[in-house]
Specification:
Length: 140
């Protein structure tokens, strides 16, 4: 192997290692602390009807343009992907909070980076709150 070929091979190896990204670090990297992210992505609802809340979460995600990939009522999780111009994935968990409430927690990722902007969460929860209100008051 010629010295120029060796130099080219070494340069290529250095460039490839410089491009390597630790996906775990990318997912965990946000501009906000975990406490702030939890506050942005969690809401409590005055209901104990988990099945109805899950149906409302699924309907809300679909209304916002998400394609629901997985829904597990036993675990209380719904995951969906929104592909309109970008790839955002959102996972929503519904769990009991005390004896009279359910906590709904949303977590979104854009590609492999956690979404730290509050706007997508605010849009989701505003739509979910309307759906929960309409359902509670039996408005079609």
């Amino acid at each position: 192997m010629t010295p120029i070929a060796r130099l080219g091979l070494a340069a290529l190896a250095l460039m490839l290692t410089g491009c390597q990204v630790d996906s775990k670090q990318q997912v965990l990297h946000t501009d906000r602390s975990q406490v702030e992210m939890r506050a942005i992505g969690t809401r409590a609802f005055d209901t104990t009807d988990r099945a109805l809340t899950m149906r409302n979460v699924i309907a809300t995600m679909q209304d916002l343009g998400f394609v629901v990939d997985k829904a597990d009522t036993a675990l209380g999780t719904v995951s969906g992907t929104k592909l309109s111009g970008y790839a955002m994935r959102m996972t929503v968990t519904v769990r009991p909070r005390g004896t009279t409430q359910l906590a709904v927690r949303a977590s979104a990722q854009y590609n492999i980076v956690a979404v730290s902007d509050a706007e997508p969460y605010q849009q989701f929860f505003a739509a979910l709150e309307k759906a929960m209100f309409l359902q509670a008051h039996q408005v079609d």
